[in-house]
Design brief:
Chain B: One of its GO terms (biological process) is tetrahydrofolate metabolic process. The complex is a heterodimer of chains A (209) and B (91). Chain A is α+β, with helices and mostly antiparallel strands and 209 residues long. Chain A has helices spanning 50-61, 98-105, 128-133, 181-195, and strands at residues 19-21, 30-35, 39-45, 71-73, 78-83, 86-91, 109-113, 118-124, 150-155, 158-164, 174-180, 200-205. The chains are: A alpha+beta (209), B mainly beta (91).
């Protein structure tokens, strides 16, 4: 039997060019950061087992899993609502993988590994919300979409999971976006076009914000 | 047109897909050919209050049952369809 060596690569490795793009002579108004090498598990309650899943998730994570469009921070993971009776577990460093979550959650829920099926993009900067307003019909004003808000929605006809994480150290809002890997490049170019007039700082990171 | 998803809140029409009339009920096993034909093919073209299935595919991927008036486009209720969300089966 042939030996295979699988190398995981970012779906944005061709489209993403680090540096400053768009408007010149101004401070970049939008910053786009792709987060690479994360663990993402989708947890969906089995039919009629939502209450059992809520209990099991509470025991596993120490906080209640979101039952409405919210993102909840635990000590080492983010739980993001993705639909009725389902949520994502986002983490780093193999803390929450299929192997570690299955014993705790697979009785009341179906688990599915989405680590390499999504791209994760962090959007911040003084013009981030104005840029996102071109692409999303969701009201992202801080009074309506405060820290911890989440939405399963569409941008440029592409399904995305959008949530507001904790503010960056400089106090600016941070929006996180999960998009299907095969749609990531298309949405990336769309976002770049939308952000160009404000100046864009592009980078990638191994760290969850 | 906007639909207020019971899970996500108010969203634009582009996030939803129309499935069709929510009225027809699958006939019991052994029903007559006429009943099955009626269920599969025959639809009323209602001018007024209708009940429809919509799919929130651009959002939470839940099936919804929407009561809509085809004359005014007024939506009077939106509820999860049978099976939308594990906890809400039968809601």
């Amino acid at each position: 039997m042939a030996d295979f060596s699988w190398v995981s690569r970012s779906p944005l490795e061709h489209a993403l060019v680090t540096g400053t793009h768009g408007a010149r002579g101004v401070e970049a108004g939008v910053s786009l950061t792709e987060i690479r090498n994360f663990d993402l598990i989708q947890v969906m309650a089995r039919r009629g087992q939502a209450a059992e899943l809520a209990k099991a998730a509470m025991a596993r994570f120490g906080v209640a899993a979101p039952d409405a469009p919210k993102a909840v921070q635990t000590s080492d993971a983010t739980l993001i609502w993705s639909g009725p009776d389902q949520f994502f577990v986002l983490s780093k460093g193999s803390k929450h993988t299929m192997q570690t979550l299955a014993p705790a959650l697979s009785s009341p829920a179906s688990l599915s590994d989405q680590s390499h099926a999504r791209a994760l993009i962090g959007i911040s900067g003084s013009k981030a919300r104005i840029m996102l307003a071109k692409l999303s019909s969701i009201d992202l004003h801080p009074e309506v979409f405060p820290i911890g808000s989440a939405a399963a929605t569409s941008m440029d006809h592409t399904s995305v999971t959008l949530w507001r994480g904790g503010n960056r150290p400089d106090g600016q809002a941070l929006f996180n976006l999960l998009v299907f890997a095969t749609f990531a490049e298309s949405l990336w170019h769309t976002m770049l076009d939308a952000a160009a007039e404000y100046g864009v700082d592009i980078s990638h990171s191994e760290e969850l914000a | 047109m906007r639909i207020v998803c019971p899970f996500c809140g108010e969203r634009e029409l582009g996030e939803f897909t129309y499935l069709g009339d929510a009225k027809p009920v699958r006939p019991v096993a052994g029903a007559s050919e006429d009943e099955v034909f009626d269920y599969v093919y025959l639809r009323d073209n209602v001018a007024g209050a209708t009940s429809e299935y919509w799919y929130h595919g651009g959002g939470c991927r839940a099936w919804l049952k929407v009561a809509r008036n085809t004359l005014t486009h007024e939506i009077s209720s939106v509820e999860p369809a049978l099976g939308a969300g594990a906890a809400r089966v039968g809601a």
